[in-house]
Q: What sequence folds into this?
């Protein structure tokens, strides 16, 4: 520099003159119109500040971005779900309130209808159909076929008419086991008569199932007693068996079978010879069937004893053709605690499958009465199931008189 003047250098390429070095002028800010518009280099602080200010101003003037189509759809679905949930909650609350304020009589009718449906379902599970035909004489039956006009049904109606003419109460219940839509035949199944020794069969099954199998009673002690109870119908051994078991669980076992034990005036645990209906005998023997076919050694042993029971109409009429498990009861005197009766109940393994049967009467005067009814019932069962419906009873086959059938310690069979 000479006299304050800066030497200018000549551009070798263009021939123009320019300052030799920009260094002396770095402290002097350029005017705005000479500042680079897009420089953001950190080497120029003034340019960096301007760029940041411009970006801030730009952001403040740009409108907020709009939702995309997917976002809008998600928002709409969320709102719709919330609205639907609110509507359903209100409707459910209205229904609950309406049902609570409904007619009590209507609610009771609905409850009764449900009970009927449950009863029908239970019958179907038991192997019977809920569709029944009822004759003018009161016989109800159901099955795969019809008994209308059949000789078997006519014979059964004739036998029951004879009972009505002689003022004899008869209670009948028969239905198949292990069948989805099995046959069933009933006549006054809820009428109760004095059970006599027929009750010894279910009681023996209870002792074996609940007391011997569980080890509460010793098998070697119980077996000879039960054998005499079933094969000889010994009242003294039955008394020993009742004492031995200490009346433990008998009523509960019957209740598990479906019997309304509370409807009896005297509890079963204290009534050795309770009045029972055919329906109650059938329920008890059905529970017994489940145990006797369970496959245990004790169950097999007990089932063999029921093959040889004395004076059983089921054995006498059907035993030569089918295997039968049964226990009959017969009492001929009228006393303060008992009345004449002739009963039989058990399991018959017919040609179309096993069925449970009970025939109960309040008369012991006609020894052939139960035999005839058992034969007619088996013929009807054969026709309903497509099996053997031929008569198997010979009228000459009669139960011996009471004096011939009892032992020294017994008063009933």
A:
């Amino acid at each position: 520099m000479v006299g304050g003047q800066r030497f200018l250098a000549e551009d070798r390429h263009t021939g123009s003159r320019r300052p030799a070095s920009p260094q002396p002028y770095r402290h002097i800010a350029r005017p705005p119109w000479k500042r680079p518009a897009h420089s953001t280099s950190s080497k120029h602080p003034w340019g960096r500040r301007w760029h940041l200010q411009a970006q801030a101003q730009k952001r403040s003037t740009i409108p907020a971005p709009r939702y995309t189509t997917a976002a809008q759809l998600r928002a709409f679905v969320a709102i719709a779900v919330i609205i639907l949930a609110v509507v359903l909650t209100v409707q459910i609350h209205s229904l609950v309130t309406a049902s609570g304020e409904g007619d009590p009589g209507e609610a009771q009718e609905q409850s009764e209808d449900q009970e009927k449906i449950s009863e029908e379902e239970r019958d179907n599970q038991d192997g019977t159909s809920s569709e029944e035909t009822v004759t003018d004489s009161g016989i109800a039956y159901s099955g795969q076929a019809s008994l209308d006009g059949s000789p078997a049904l006519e014979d059964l109606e004739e036998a029951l008419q004879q009972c009505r003419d002689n003022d004899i109460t008869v209670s009948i219940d028969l239905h198949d086991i292990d069948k989805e839509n099995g046959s069933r035949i009933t006549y006054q199944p809820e009428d109760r008569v004095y059970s006599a020794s027929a009750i010894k069969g279910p009681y023996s099954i209870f002792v074996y199932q609940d007391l011997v199998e569980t080890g509460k009673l010793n098998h070697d002690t119980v077996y000879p007693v039960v054998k005499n109870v079933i094969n000889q119908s010994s009242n003294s051994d039955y008394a020993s068996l009742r004492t031995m078991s200490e009346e433990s669980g008998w009523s509960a076992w019957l209740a598990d079978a479906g019997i309304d034990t509370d409807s009896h005036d005297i509890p079963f645990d204290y009534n050795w010879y309770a009045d029972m209906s055919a329906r109650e005998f059938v329920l008890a023997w059905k529970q017994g069937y489940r145990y006797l076919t369970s496959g245990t050694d004790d169950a097999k042993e007990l089932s063999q004893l029921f093959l040889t029971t004395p004076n059983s109409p089921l054995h006498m009429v059907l035993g030569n053709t089918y295997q039968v498990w049964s226990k009959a009861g017969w009492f001929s005197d009228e006393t303060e605690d008992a009345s004449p009766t002739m009963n039989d109940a058990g399991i018959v393994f017919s040609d179309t499958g096993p069925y449970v049967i009970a025939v109960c009467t309040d008369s012991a005067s006609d020894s052939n009465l139960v035999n005839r009814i058992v034969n007619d019932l088996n013929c009807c069962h054969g026709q309903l199931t497509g099996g053997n419906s031929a008569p198997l009873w010979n009228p000459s086959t009669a139960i011996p008189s009471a004096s011939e059938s009892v032992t020294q310690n017994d008063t009933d069979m």
Q: What stands out?
A: The radius of gyration is 48 Å. Residues 133-405 form a domain with the Beta-lactamase fold (CATH 3.40.710.10). The chain is about 45% helix and 15% strand.
